[in-house]
Amino acid sequence: MSLSESEILRFSRHIILREVGGRGQKRLKGAHVLVAGLGSAGSSAALYLKAAGIGAMTLWDDGVVSSGDLAGSVVHAQERIGMARARSAAFTLARLYQEGELTVLDRETDLLMGLAAFDAILLANGPWEAIIQEAERLGIPVVLTAAHRGEGAVTVIAPDGPCFGCMPERLRLLAGLYQEEGDGAVAPAAGVVGTMAAAEVLKRLLGVGEGLAGRILRWDGWDATVHEFAWGENCVHKTEKA
Amino acid sequence: MTGFSLAERARLQNASVLLIGLGGLGSPIALQLAAAGVGRLGLCDPDEVDLSNLQRQVAHGDPDVGRPKIESAAAKLWSIRPELQLDLIKEPLTSSNALDLFRTVDLIVDGSDNFATRYLANDAAFLTGKPLVHGSISRWDGQVSVFATGGPCYRCLHPEPPPPGSVPSCAEAGVIGILPGTIGSVMAMEAIKWLLGRGAPLQGRVLTYNALWQEWGELRLRPRLDCPLCGPNPTLTKLIDYEQFCGGMLG
Lengths: 242, 251
What we know:
The complex is a heterodimer.
Chain A: H1 5-10, H2 12-15, H3 21-29, E1 32-36, H4 40-51, E2 56-60, H5 69-72, H6 85-96, E3 101-105, H7 108-113, E4 120-123, H8 128-138, E5 142-148, E6 151-157, H9 169-175, H10 187-206, E7 215-220, E8 225-230, H11 236-241
Parallel strand pairs in A: 1-2, 1-4, 2-3, 4-5
Antiparallel strand pairs in A: 5-6, 6-7, 7-8
Chain B: H1 6-13, E1 16-20, H2 26-36, E2 40-44, H3 69-80, E3 85-89, H4 98-103, E4 107-110, H5 115-128, E5 132-138, E6 141-147, H6 154-157, H7 170-173, H8 179-196, E7 205-210, E8 215-220, H9 242-245
Parallel strand pairs in B: 1-2, 1-4, 2-3, 4-5
Antiparallel strand pairs in B: 5-6, 6-7, 7-8
């Protein structure tokens, strides 16, 4: 995997970062990332992952674009109301950067069968438990995010961290990591957590920084505050895995 | 569906925001303010889209390289909200146009990438009595604050511009492409909060973020008694030459 001259120019602001470099940018180019859920948070995440140069992306969503989606998400368009959300997002992503592979899925069965292909999963919507369970079995890191109204949260479930089963449900709900019918998030709040989740994917792929395995970050946009919750300190599976 | 009450939606629909810069910060700010239902946006940027912008400036795409950023962004914004009112200003913000541009809007969001523009936006916002949402980014770090009547202002945070060449630009230092997405989103949220008079704004608070370590922090910022702009004995009562003030250094 090498970078063309135009890629070197395009990603020059990344390449001069010590934590990315030419090597890191090639890693991103060689990576295959799944974004499940193209609502508010997933939209921002997908847009920024594509812009960052992820070489292969698969987009999954089983819904269609509604006028309500346009109020919270930034990848869809008025003229695509009624279109499958994943397909609509793919339009915007392909226009942003025509290089790279984009795959669109709208059926749950296709999604769960093909998980082994991914280097990382950004999970904003969809069959959470089934995806996480299968990803844990395959050793694929999952970045979990959700946004509601003016708030949102992010965490990571990864082979080197505690397992999902050790995340207390009470804490998960308290932090706002749950799915909600209607996706009623304020656009910028979803933008904050969606891009934080995308940063987690990039850091995983690059192997840099401190990730959110075992930490939930909860963003409250109305207060502009962040709360951090630790989870899974006593996870036995983590020790077994290590 | 939107997280706003009917009354709040009407308020946003009647609001007018001026956005300085349609780059890394300006892209998510414009997209989100449009999505959230702000009625009128002024887009102020003199530049054209460059290939090296596309790693982070998500209001633009491959077919937009070479096109004015305000036009490229406008097309994207209208695809989300065809009824959005846009004022396209293909000029840099200067001491001669700033006061007029600021007077006609409810709030200004500064998505610029250089010190001269930041001081200018700060002074012009204070002199016209308009709230200003400030943000900046470098490498993996960013910060956001709100400057409004009563202070503090950007000059309380940075009384002096840094010596020319001492602070590297994004081109020199690099920036992780996702960072302006997060910081710009926080800025858009602050704009909405201010327009709605809801929540706790970042006035007198500087929110800091590092994406590499996922660390958020907050600094308390007090108005400086010796601030030449917002202090009790102001010496700055009109706009100055900001290029000269910042040593002619851009970025």
